[in-house]
Amino acid sequence: MAVNKKKPEELRSHRWYGAQDMRSFGHRSRTKQMGFAAEDYAGKPVIAILNTFSDANPCHHHFKSRVDDVKRGIFQAGGFPLEMPAMSLGEPFMKPTTMLYRNLLSMDVEELLRANPVDGVVLMGGCDKTVPAMLMGAASMNLPAIFLPAGPMLRGNWHGKTLGSGSDVWKYWAEKRAGNIDDKAWVEIEDGIARSFGTCMTMGTASTMASAAEALGMTLPGAGSIPAADSNHPRMSAACGRRIVEMVWEDLKPSDIMTTAAFENAVMTVTALAGSTNSIIHLIAMAGRIGAALDLDKFDALAKRVPVLSNLRPSGKYLMEDFYYAGGLPALLAQLEKFLHKDCITANGKTLGENIAGAQIYNDDVIRTLANPAAPEGGIAVLRGSLAPSGAVIKPPAAEPHLLKHRGPAIVFKDYNDMAARIDDPNLGATKDSVLILQSAGPLGAPGMPEWGQLPIPKRLLEAGVRDMVRISDARMSGTSYGACVLHVAPESALGGPLALVKDGDIVSLDVPARKLDLEISAAEMAARKAAWKAPAEHYPRGYGWMHHRHVTQANEGCDFDFLRGTAPIPDPEIH
Ligand code: FES
Hints:
single chain; alpha/beta; 4-stranded parallel sheet; 14 strands; binds FE2/S2 (inorganic) cluster
């Protein structure tokens, strides 16, 4: 790519610092107020570091000091860093779900960049929604940007057994409910499952989205797999600081990197990782911001093209630390080489093909070769049918294979509280063939589409040895979850989609190979039930939730706000 080197007076920040008027006097004098001299900032790219550190986000606990490594790199390369706190979306604490606030963080990012004297940005995120939110905001603002993933935490440990975030919580909680784990063991697992700062170390949403960001070209090569506690992580942080300064001079923007071809690379990467189903929603939303073509059908077609090559929990055996030692994402991408658009430009100014050339696998059980894949087809499937006219998704490798083609009678829960109250009721009447249905869990219904899609197995069935059942909802599922869970059903039940019309005992049929999901009632019966359906009351009388209700789109459209999509230019602010 030709380097279009800017002159200092062409920097966006020059409008703040370079003019000779009263306002720029204020900008300079207030920079000096912080102890900086003209030698620190004059004529230099101003780099925002958007830091999502928060004491309420343990996954980003190291960002408080890691930001100093980013600043070091920026200074080394002749830039001027301005650290700005951005809203932190900490999965472990926020309720009803961080997803309710993904779009709010994206707006935070976009408007921080627009309002301040910024030429380029390092985005410090990692915990699930922070990745798409920051990339969505940066895409909309379209200033040179580089994403620094928080990195996964170290492997969990209990009595010498490896523990994976989320996945082993669900697993051992089921064993506790089945009476196989006592309270003492449960506390020991609690002590050992999160041993360092960093994001979930399974191939959950954080690792999936960090990998997607790398495949998209928005990180430096290899950044998506480095464990947070590894000394390579602060070195990578400094490298991001150095590189963003060059990107400003080169005017290398997200619109140059986040192309339709780059999104196709990201989708194939996610499916080869058997990554989180949440990535479907996020990648569609990200593409919608920058005008790239991506929808559910393309996702499914690309997923069919590539095999699953990672052997990571929740679908496989290993964790992100193992993945890093096995060669990390560059090694996996090198295996996918023949499927990828290798000429896509990436944040380091090189093509994806150049970045992955010669990348080696060091453990071919963790990262499989094309000759020995973990599964022959990609890890995500899109379903349609009378129960999901606008689509639904499932992660086939995470389900017991015999459930991928299944017919069974529905047991319907009208919302999460109803499910929580009745799931272990001995009179529920569930058998291993029942299909558990959860309503009111979508973008509007919950609200915010929480990760409720892995409905628990009823206790009586757990005690009888059942560990998977078909479960269907308009919710999402944690990327660390597993099971035959059909998710993201659209239109959602709160909009009167067919999911709202299912009754106990209706036969539901799931056929993943045929990509079908059907409610076996007549069209006339469906129409009669729809005519009798009443829309639920709104959750919020005012505030952000009120706005969310009016503008959030459905799962198949990425759940972005309708007014944030697209690439219509917004003028820079007047600075006088
Ligand atoms: Fe933060 Fe999983 S809770 S990445």
